[in-house]
């Protein structure tokens, strides 16, 4: 099978994007893993299929780099919105369905604003918090984030008794002055540190709001700058938006 693919990146979280509106593409777990392989394939943290869905502008189907169907990916969602605008499917606004439900998004001043699911509950753990922002996220506040071994520490938590069956993404967040955060993330399904995780920084911003952080929260990640805006509602959050750039890197062809 000959495939035309696009490569996108959002703050360094990178994706292979395939237009499957004709429904001609079906990929095995091995084929997705091959396309995401950085040495033997195209190379990406994840792969997305753009599909049609009645009642929506499009459907987002997301796979992790290991080839398994993933849960919601915030940076991937932002990249897919940029892709559908590039393909002429939408102009500046989109309404789509992903694994965690419907999402609204719009483009403004070159940034993609993606509405994330409402978050009802943040679970308090002994030294961290845990929540689902479309994907599961463990959030641990640290100091000296730059010196942390995110791979080793993240991996230990991801494979701990509580999380080893389902897995979790693991975020380490440093609280900086002036309402700013710095975040590094170990991603499930990539099983490594990535340069950015959209659902992860969303979780970090919501967790930080409990220490007085106010919307919008600017967040530095290894691959750039993101923002998260939100409204508090009781112990939960609504109107949560992930805001940042999404860039087409190249288009290519590959034979499977
Ligand atoms: N990079 C993604 C998260 C992917 C989710 C995945 N790693 C999982 O939970 O299995 C993001 O920007 O939100």
Automatic annotation (TrEMBL):
It is found in: Cytoplasm. Substrate binds at residues 13, 64, 74-75, 169, 187-188, 198-199. Keywords: Amino-acid biosynthesis, Cytoplasm, Isomerase, Lysine biosynthesis. The active site is at 73 (proton donor), 197 (proton acceptor). Pfam families: DAP_epimerase. Pathway: Amino-acid biosynthesis; L-lysine biosynthesis via DAP pathway; DL-2,6-diaminopimelate from LL-2,6-diaminopimelate: step 1/1. Homodimer. NCBIfam families: DapF. This is Diaminopimelate epimerase. It comes from Rufibacter radiotolerans.
């Amino acid at each position: 099978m000959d495939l035309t693919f696009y490569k996108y990146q959002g703050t360094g979280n990178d994706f292979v994007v395939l237009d499957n509106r004709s429904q001609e593409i079906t990929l095995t777990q091995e084929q997705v893993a091959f396309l995401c392989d950085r040495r033997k394939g195209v190379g990406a943290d994840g792969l997305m299929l753009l599909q049609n869905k009645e009642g929506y502008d499009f459907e987002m189907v997301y796979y992790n780099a290991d080839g398994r169907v993933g849960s919601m990916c915030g940076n991937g969602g932002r990249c897919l919105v940029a892709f559908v605008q590039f393909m002429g499917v939408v102009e500046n606004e989109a309404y789509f369905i992903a694994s965690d439900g419907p999402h609204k998004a719009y483009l403004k001043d070159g940034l993609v604003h993606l509405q994330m699911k409402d978050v009802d509950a943040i679970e308090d753990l002994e030294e961290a918090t845990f929540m689902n922002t479309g994907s599961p996220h463990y959030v641990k506040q640290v100091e000296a984030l730059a010196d942390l071994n995110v791979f080793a520490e993240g991996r230990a938590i991801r494979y701990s008794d509580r999380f080893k069956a389902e897995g979790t993404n693991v975020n380490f967040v440093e609280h900086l002055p002036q309402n700013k955060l710095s975040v590094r993330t170990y991603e499930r399904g990539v099983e490594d540190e990535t340069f950015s995780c959209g659902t992860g920084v969303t979780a970090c911003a919501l967790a930080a709001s409990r220490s007085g952080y106010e919307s919008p929260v600017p967040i530095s990640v290894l691959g750039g700058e993101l923002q998260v805006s939100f409204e508090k509602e009781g112990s939960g959050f609504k109107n949560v938006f992930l805001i940042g750039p999404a860039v087409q890197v190249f288009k290519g062809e590959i034979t499977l």
